[in-house]
Fold each of these.
Amino acid sequence: MTDVTAETPVVENDAANTAPAATGFDALRGMGTVGAGEEHPVYVQKLDAQGRAYSTGKRKNAIARVWIKPGSGKITINGKDQMQYFAREILRMMIAQPLEVTDRLTQFDVDCTVQGSGLSGQAGAIRHGLSHALTHYEPALRPVLKPHGFLTRDSRVVERKKYGRAKARKSFQFSKR
């Protein structure tokens, strides 16, 4: 009988070290191998010098710039507390949805500036920006936020007014005589 306890040689794959440097959009993420040779993006943490994650959110004509940092759960909008800025409970609930889904309500302080559109559009823009900022701070939260649609920009905007029309589609009143 022969003894088959010989060790098999281990060959290291050096392809990751010889790959060219990522440029443009791919610089935000690295490429990792998952499963049977499938390439999936591996997102990396993206913070500024103060340890904050930043992102921009948009909805209708509103644009929100959102910064998150570790804290007690305080949300500040344009220098005001969220209770002062958004009087309606539904808008405050809308902003907090990404934090509720990820169980991070009391872990982050949110500071944002928002402009344009109305209060509803601004709340949607803050929610969109907050969701992206959470993925920049903790990339592992992306699979939790994506199914709820928080990372998707709602592209619906007001239709422009056409000439010969009262509004975008409404005609002027018809006169028989």
Amino acid sequence: MVQTESKVRAVDVADLTVAYRDKPVLWDIDLNVPSGVLMAIVGPNGAGKTTLIKAILGLIKPIAGSVAILGKPYAKQRRSVGYVPQRGTVDWDFPTTVLDVVLMGTYGTIGWFRRPGVIQYAAARDALAKVSMLDLADRQISQLSGGQQQRVFLARALVQNAAVYFMDEPFQGVDATTESAIVSLLRELRNIGRTVLVVHHDLSTVRDYFDWVTLLNVRKIASGPISEVFTDENLRLTYGQRVKI
């Protein structure tokens, strides 16, 4: 999708540094992501990919730097942001149904103390239909497979109707059918002008799935359109060895 100069950038990160016990996990990151792109964040284990997303979302406090979403601080743009965390970080034994999990995505609009109404239930069912999970709406989430659980979290993000989505390894542990469905959904979001940032680990699919990429290894190595920055040289700088695309 072609960006016009008049568009407000989806994400602006300036001089972002995050450290754990005085050890830098992210160092002096500058990142500018235009609206309407589907971007992968790639790098080796321990590169700070998940930390970057969490710092942007205010889940981790940086020791320096600033973040803006659509030109404003994240605190003022919460309703414009959707987040899909790593599946392994979620307590899937919590006793709730698939539909109830998806309805949680509407709370940012209606508030935590109001019950979802007809509009919210319709939106939740529509989101489940988009990820082919509507027939399991009444199933307990603990009874789902890994791929099905991932689809539920995607549906929860969809009902937020966000402008910017952050997804942390949505393809992890899913089968080929689910991966294909997720890719189609991400492209649909991009095609209607949404911005999607995805932590991704499979270098062989970056060109096929995404149009932008950020290469990260504590520092930002490169960020931009796939055709410009997803090169052998940048991969070598990112992974510290010769990597074939």
